[in-house]
Structures are given as C-alpha cells and as structure tokens.
Design a protein that fits this description.
The chain has 424 residues and is mostly helical. Helix content is 86%, strand content 0%. The model is unreliable at 1-14 (pLDDT under 50).
C-alpha cells in the first residue's frame, strides 16, 4: 500500500515547466504592481513558478491584468502572453480543451513573429497538456518541437528545459538509453548554469530510470544526489520533497530505519516551509509507513494528525485521504463503531468535494468565457478599425483617380480645341 502511493509521488513531482523559482511571492507581487507593461511580462515570466501555489484568484488577477493592458495599449504580444499563462493555469486545473485553445492562440502569434524562445515555451506547455491527458505520443511530438525551437533560439535555457519531460516519456516507453543520454545532457547544462533546482530534478528522474528497472541501489544513489542539490537551493519545500523520495527509496530497499528517519526529516522541513497542505501529506506518509510496519497505534496517531490539519485548513482532499485510512486502521483494530463514524465522515467530505469541484469548474469556465468575450470585442474593434482605414484608403485612391480622369479630359479637350487652329 505505501509503496504504490509514495512511488506515485516520485513519478509526478517532476513535470518540468518553463518557469523558474527565484523570490518570495510578496516581493514578486510588489515588483509586478509597480512595473510598466513590458517589465510586468519579465517579472511574470521569470517568477510564475513561485506564484503557481497561490490562490486561484491571485493567479487570475495577473492573467486578467495582462489582458486588460494588452487591450488598452493595443499590444498583441501582451495578449499572447496572457493566453500563454492562462493556458498553463487551465492545464493545472485540468481544463485541457480550454487550455489547448489558449496555448494555440499564443502559438499562432509567436509563430507569426518567429519568437523561437516563446515557441519553445508554448510547445512545452502543449506537451504538458497532452501528457496530463495520457496522450504520450502527442506529448512527445510537442516536447520535440519545443526542443527544436529552443535550439533555434540559441539560448541554452530554452534548448534544455523540455529534455526533462522527454526523459520521463522515454523512461515510460522503456527507452532507457535514450532517456539516460537526454538526462545526462540536461544535468550537465544545468550544473554549468548553476540551476541547482533543475539539477535536482534531473537526478530525481535518473533515479526513476533505475527504479523502473528495479535497480534499487543505483536509484537510491541518484535520489541522494538529487537530495544534495535540493539542499543547496535552501528551499524547504524542495528539501522536504527530497527527503520524502529518499525515504521511499530506503523503504523499497527494506531499510526501514533510514526510511523512518527521512520521513520525519521531510515532516520537519515541511513544518519549516509552513504549507499546511504538505504538512498534512507528511503526516499521512508517516501513517502509511507505520501501517506498513503493522504498527496500527502509531499509524492512527499520524493519520489523525493529518486529518486534523487538513480539516483546519479546509483541505478536503487531505481530509478524504486521511478518513479512509483511519477507517482502515479502525477495521484492523476491530473498532467497528469508530470505523463506521469515519466512513460516514468520508462520504460527507466526498459529497462536499463534488459540489466544490462543480462550483470551481463553473467559476473557471465563467472566467474563461468572460475573457473570451473581452478578447473577441477587442478583435472585433480592431477589424472595424482596419475596415475603416481600408475604406478611407479606397476613398483616397478613388478621389485620386477622379482627378486624374478629370485632368485627362481637360487635356484631351484642349487638344481637340486647339488642333484646328494649328491647321489654319
């Protein structure tokens, strides 16, 4: 049970986006608000990864602000960036059809302008869109296009960032030699660029490559290297993820003492980071660990803590996961009354989640629809302006030809009038 759930954590925490992680979010927001529209593009592009974890309203503010600036200042490039960010956001929310529309609209503009760096970014996001839907072949094609345009841009960052995603695909296709070559290139570049977060990602994927082949010693070695680079970033979230993955590797190798130690270290760093979602997850992981060790009482303590933190912070997904495990522990302990209570709570939370999901989806779709209306209105206005200009230009040309014709008639009349005089 623990193996399946935590192994999933390793495979899913490395989906590589374009965005980097640099500053705290308060500083990013302050920089954005005081910037002009061109600088806003720079601030958002360099720091979007940091704000992805903020509330949906905050992210949508940035997106709508870009769109408003694009319309007010008649800047198609700003509107293209707005579509690009909205596409990434919709990808994260699971609205893949809407995301694809936004990303393809951005692609159309950047293709017309031949901006290879942004085409690399957009194709990478389109690859993520397909990958998240399980369309692996289509995702691979987009990642290869991203790599192609990254090379054309002659900027190392854009040339290499799709390689992690390609590596993951080749691991899934069991093309281990190709995956290894790609990941070694990715790691070497990011070491040279001193992007230690991406180095940690590369080593994490190398560990996945060996886990997939059941070479657990090599997998553990690469996870520990990934851990070293995560530590060097000083980012407690990344460090906690690293300790979690190392704990999983030791658990798979049946080194339970070291696995337990690393799960507790992961919890300590997640407490330091202060994100209640991940704190609840760490308690849940420890509950899994102790349940797997047939220590039901300890598992009960950690699952209960996970449930309490999730409930305090309105994390219904965390509540749902903890409740079903608490019911399993009570079943094992033959405490059927408590088991029944937890199952009732579980059903209630699932119903709330379904209602909240519907409400959230409607809100996102409404936002997407409103943005589409504003964009269509802007484009309609642009078409009217173009048509008006063409009509004015046509009128000018027509007036010009009228004067030419009139002049021609006058000349011809003069010729006819004076011709007899010359004969006389």
């Amino acid at each position: 049970m623990i193996f399946k759930r935590l192994y999933f954590t390793i495979t899913c925490c490395f989906l590589q986006s374009t965005f980097s992680f640099t500053q705290n979010t308060d500083q990013i927001i302050e920089n954005y608000l005081k910037s002009d529209v061109d600088q806003k593009l720079v601030v958002l592009f360099e720091n979007y990864g940091d704000i992805e974890g903020l509330s949906a309203d905050t992210i949508l503010y940035f997106i709508r602000d870009l769109q408003k600036n694009g319309i007010q200042k008649n800047r198609e490039d700003v509107l293209a960036f707005s579509n690009y960010y909205f596409g990434n956001y919709l990808n994260d929310q699971g609205f893949f059809l809407e995301a694809e529309k936004k990303l393809k609209a951005a692609k159309e503009f950047f293709s017309f302008r031949e901006v290879d760096s942004m085409l690399a970014s957009v194709y990478n996001a389109l690859g993520n869109n397909e990958y998240l839907q399980g369309k692996i072949k289509a995702a691979e094609a987009y990642y290869l296009k991203s790599h192609h345009h990254g090379k054309k841009s002659d900027i190392g960052k854009f040339e290499h960032f799709a390689l992690a995603n390609l590596g993951r695909i080749y691991i899934g296709q069991k093309k281990y030699d190709e995956a290894k070559q790609i990941l070694e290139d990715y790691i070497a570049y990011n070491k040279k660029a001193e992007n230690f977060r991406n180095v940690g990602t590369g080593y994490g994927l190398m560990s996945q490559l060996y886990l997939d082949q059941e070479k657990f010693d090599e997998a553990t070695e690469f996870l520990e290297r990934s851990m070293e680079y995560n530590l060097s970033t000083g980012n407690p979230k990344l460090i906690a993820n690293g300790y979690t993955n190392v704990a999983i590797a030791h658990y798979i190798k049946e080194d339970y003492e070291r696995a337990e130690k690393n799960f507790h270290l992961a919890l300590a760093y997640r407490k330091k980071a202060g994100d209640p979602f991940f704190i609840a997850e760490s308690y849940y992981n420890l509950g899994d660990f102790y349940l797997g060790q047939e220590q039901a009482d300890s598992a009960l303590v950690y699952y209960t803590k996970s449930y309490e933190i999730a409930k305090e912070n309105n994390n219904q997904l965390g509540e749902k996961d903890a409740l079903i495990q608490l019911a399993a522990v009570f079943e094992e302990k033959k405490m059927h009354k408590e088991e029944a209570e937890k199952l009732k709570e579980y059903i209630a939370v699932v119903e709330e989640l379904n209602a909240e999901k519907l409400s959230r989806e409607l809100n996102i779709l409404r936002t997407s629809f409103e943005e589409e209306l504003e964009l269509n209105s802007y484009q309609g206005h642009q078409r009217e302006e173009i048509l008006r200009d063409r009509v004015a230009e046509t009128n000018r040309i027509w007036d010009y030809w009228i004067w030419i014709v009139l002049g021609g008639i006058l000349v011809l009349t003069g010729v006819i009038y004076f011709a007899p005089s010359r004969k006389k």
